[in-house]
Amino acid sequence: MDKNLKEQFTGVIEFTPPLYKQRYQFIKDLVGKYKPKKVADIGCADCTLLWMLKFCSCIEVLAGVDICLSVMKKKMHMLGPLPVDYLRPSARSLTVTLHQGSVAQKDPCMLGFDLVTCIELIEHLEEPELQKFPEVVFGFMAPSIVVISTPNSEFNPLLPGVTSFRHPDHKFEWNRVQFQSWALEIARDYDYSVEFTGVGEPPTGMEDVGFCTQIGVFIRKNPQTSEFTQSDKTTEAVYKMVFKAVYPSLKDEKYLQNAVVSEVIFTAQSITQSLLDRSVSEHGECSERKSKCQPSMNRFSEDLGKLVVEKSKEAFVNGNVVYIPLTTIFSFPRVNQLCATFEKLCKLISGKVTLNSDGSAVMFNTEHENKEN
Ligand code: SAM
């Protein structure tokens, strides 16, 4: 059968996008569908999948596990926050950790995940590790969803240069019946449903071989009463944490305060600037007699004062100072979105932004502004 297949097929297999990207995209699509908050990738190797997943806004906890520290180290720096993450902290929290350890061992840091991915992992496991795999992943970790991918050996005759296994470290490669019977037994034992699919379409006319990568998606049938079950699973820590990054988030009061103060100052500046612009345009005739009419800041403020009182009734001017009511600032969408309540706005800017004596308005010195410009 294999020999015939090879003889029938004379083309060159080229996957577009490459097969590994199709596998990662499959996981990203699954994340888009189920929106898991906590995702662990076992056999994460150089952390490429984890790096792609950190951009999925539903994910708040990302963990990678691999037995090999050197492979994880290669690109682990990519998992840390960038300067832009500090400049504009995200609304979600995100913690990324990497652990050196084996999927054949239980560790408490692997509890509480919604999705566990094992991409091209199982074929690298020695027999005793493969024996322990179901108990660790499905019995102990017991996430809502497990995704397992592995090569489909039926596709191998179509791959150039593959005589036995696709990679020298593979301990086995299964056909679809072998993979599916193994997966169905696990699903039955641990009360999951499983669906089979794959990535890497076979060439036209060769559809019988199935996908190049076969995938099982396991969904836990019964939602776990997590806290009880988690605390039930006491076990000693055996994994070694080798990386941890906590991303700046607006859920952290410190970053929220910075963001609100910046936004309030920016809003106050914008309001002041638009008042100044309006004042200039309404006194445009002055520009023809510029030398005589160049307004001093006091004169300017006087004009501005009239203008504001007449036209807006919101902000007002006293001398060189523009007073912008906090209620006006709170009505700006970004400020409103950040603070949610007016009380929260007052609390967050207290002591950080100059306010008038009763704390109802932001004071903005136009003289200072003018000099800086
Ligand atoms: N999942 C990655 C991907 O799709 O790009 C890479 C998979 S790589 C082919 C297999 C990985 O499994 C290797 O990085 C290897 O170190 C890791 N591995 C092998 N045995 C393991 C074990 N017992 N526990 C955890 N990881 C293991």
Describe this structure as you would to a colleague.
With about 375 residues, the chain is of the alpha/beta class. It has two domains: about 1-245, 3-Layer(aba) Sandwich (Rossmann fold); about 255-370, no CATH class. Helices cover about 40% and strands about 15% of the residues. The chain has 15 helices and eleven strands. It has helices at about 1-10, 20-35, 50-55, 70-75, 85, 125-140, 175-190, 225-230, 255-280, 290-295, 295-310, 325-330, 335-340, 340-350, 365-370, and strands spanning about 40, 60-65, 95-100, 115-120, 145-150, 190-200, 215-220, 240-245, 315-320, 320-325, 360-365. Strands 6-7-5-4-1-2-3-8 form an eight-stranded mixed sheet, sandwiched between helices. A three-stranded antiparallel sheet has the order 9-10-11. Helix 3 links the parallel strand 1 (about 40) and strand 2 (about 60-65). Helix 9 (about 255-280) packs antiparallel against helix 13 (about 335-340). The N and C termini lie far apart (about 80 Å). Mean pLDDT is about 85; it is low at about 285-315.
Helix-strand layout with pairing:
Elements: H1 2-8, H2 19-34, E1 38-42, H3 48-53, E2 61-66, H4 69-73, H5 83-87, E3 95-100, E4 115-119, H6 127-141, E5 145-151, H7 176-190, E6 192-199, E7 213-220, H8 226-232, E8 240-246, H9 253-282, H10 290-293, H11 297-311, E9 316-318, E10 321-325, H12 326-330, H13 333-339, H14 342-349, E11 361-365, H15 366-372
Parallel strand pairs: 1-2, 1-4, 2-3, 4-5
Antiparallel strand pairs: 3-8, 5-7, 6-7, 9-10, 10-11
Helix pairs in contact: 9-13
